[in-house]
Amino acid sequence: MITPDYCIMMARYNTWQNNQLIDVVNVMTAAELSLDRGAFFGSILGTLSHLLWGDLAWMSRLEGGQMPKGLLAETDKYIQIGADWCGEREHTDSRIRRWVDQLEDADLQGDLTWFSSASKCDVTRPKAVCVAHMFNHQTHHRGQVHAMLTAAGETAPVSDIVFMPEDI
Questions:
Q1: Fewest CB within 10 angstroms: 34, 93, 97, 111, which?
Q2: Would you list the domain boundaries of the chain?
Q3: Is the pLDDT of residue 146 over 90?
Q4: Residues 95-121: pLDDT tens digits?
Q5: pLDDT tens, 18-60?
Q6: Which long-range contacts (CB under 8 A, 24 or more apart) does 57-65 make?
């Protein structure tokens, strides 16, 4: 289904996209970032917060370590200050990059089981599907942020993977 090379490419893409968003978040005001724009997670920062929480949750399942604090329904409030999101995002992207750099084909085989607080039960899915979901989830929610930035009159990042710089 997926390979370590695919995971490396998607982790690079994730870093590239988030670095561009960090540049935008750093120039927007707190009010602009937290304004409810009618998206599923409300605001730009709420959506970015949910996405960060989701990445941390998936990395805890895939790599180990603590789950991020808070319930799924509260993930839009996980990070409430843009600068805090920027620092935690860079740290998390580095973690994802380190993890994919050591992946082997065998690491993407078999099943992954975790307790789903949303479903209130254990869930088992193929590891490769879970990893593909993590990267798809990132792209999906960044697309929502892209739309909110455009609607706010901001310059949204270039998001076409075919234009990703080689040095990312």
A1: 111
A2: 4-24+38-152
A3: yes
A4: 999 999 999 999 999 999 999 888 889
A5: 999 999 999 999 999 999 999 999 999 999 999 999 999 999 9
A6: 58/130, 58/133, 58/134, 58/137, 59/92, 59/95, 59/96, 59/99, 61/112, 61/114, 61/130, 62/99, 62/112, 62/127, 62/130, 62/131, 62/134, 63/95, 63/99
